[in-house]
């Protein structure tokens, strides 16, 4: 391994983000400072109904200043990925799944944070009660054929990394590709 | 739009990461604090040779404490995506491309940072001089058939979000999928 940590300083601790600065020895042997953030691991859920439609949600993203369409999901908050998928899916869409499978896992920004995002395929869906939190009051939900959701990835309308990876991997696994 | 910014405070300014804390009005009308980081936009390059092989690099990731295989790329550092793609591809692989096309753009962690990663397809390749920077001294390069690189995405061996999205979108565009 090329990197060595000499010491770590916590520079900021907020409710969502912790910022650290490490004193490191870099791969070339020189000393340096390495800033990075700790945030919760995430999960994104490809919830697919029997007609091959996927559940998408849309809400206001503060930093982008616009609404974004994405897969249901959010922070794992210490839960295992499938448990977090179950909770987030219920909160944001009211759906419960009797068949959850891991589709993959990605490192969204590995140079800045070690947080990972798990991608989950959810089928055998039942409808229940939506229980969105305070930041999700403007959230809306829609059903889209999986091939149309993948087309929205290709055009850039869907751009959140976990949603992009989850939809492309789901299409690949299910072989429901449209040409 | 559901979010409103009242004020912004710069909490930390490092060479790579700036941390901000904003005083906001949330979508439910309540006041709150929103921490977020500013980092450079990124680029990842799918460099494809005439045999359908893609150039992959591997180096030490500090936060993960292991080597990771990924597409060539890095920070845009103020350059347009195609210019940054040209520079990063040359630095990390020595390759020059006479045909660069945008494959897409993703938001790696949109709740934490507005930084985006552009995905670029590079063909018509020529070989030149590798000029890696100090953090890349242990970097190695390999050529892999695109279908094998996508298989490495499916198995999770390749997990960096820009590499995952870039490879899956390239496969989709080129129709070189293996079943």
Description:
2 copies of one chain form a homodimer. The first copy, chain A, is an alpha+beta fold and 179 residues long. The first copy, chain A, has 2 domains: 4-38; 42-174, Nucleoside Triphosphate Pyrophosphohydrolase (Alpha-Beta Complex). Helix content of chain A is 21%, strand content 44%. The first copy, chain A, has helices at 81-93, 146-155, 161-174, and strands at 4-13, 18-25, 31-38, 42-47, 53-61, 66-70, 73-75, 95-106, 117-127, 140-145. In chain A, strands 7-4-9-8 form a 4-stranded mixed β-sheet, with helices on both faces. A 3-stranded antiparallel β-sheet of chain A has the order 1-2-3, with no helix packed on it. A 3-stranded antiparallel β-sheet of chain A has the order 6-5-10. The N and C termini of chain A lie far apart (44 Å). The model of chain A has no long low-confidence stretch (mean pLDDT 94). At the A-B interface, strand 1, strand 2, strand 3, strand 5 and strand 6 of A face strand 1, strand 2, strand 3, strand 5 and strand 6 of B.
Give the key terms.
homodimer, 179 residues, alpha+beta, Nucleoside Triphosphate Pyrophosphohydrolase, 2 domains, 4-stranded mixed β-sheet, 3-stranded antiparallel β-sheet, 3 helices, 44% strand
């Amino acid at each position: 391994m090329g990197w060595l940590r000499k010491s770590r300083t916590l520079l900021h601790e907020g409710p969502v983000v912790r910022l650290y600065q490490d004193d490191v020895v870099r791969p070339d042997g020189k000393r340096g400072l390495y800033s990075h953030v700790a945030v919760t691991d995430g999960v994104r859920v490809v919830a697919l109904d029997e007609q091959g439609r996927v559940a998408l949600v849309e809400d206001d993203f503060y930093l982008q200043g616009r609404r974004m369409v994405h897969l249901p999901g959010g922070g794992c908050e210490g839960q295992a990925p499938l448990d977090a998928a179950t909770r987030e899916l219920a909160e944001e869409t009211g759906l419960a799944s009797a068949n959850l499978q891991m589709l993959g896992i990605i490192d969204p920004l590995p140079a800045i944070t070690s947080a990972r995002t798990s991608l989950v395929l959810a089928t055998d869906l039942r409808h229940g009660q939506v229980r969105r939190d305070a930041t999700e009051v403007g959230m809306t939900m829609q059903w889209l054929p999986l091939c149309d959701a993948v087309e929205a990835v290709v055009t850039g309308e869907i751009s959140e990394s976990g949603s992009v990876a989850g939809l492309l991997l789901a299409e690949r696994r299910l072989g429901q590709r449209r040409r």
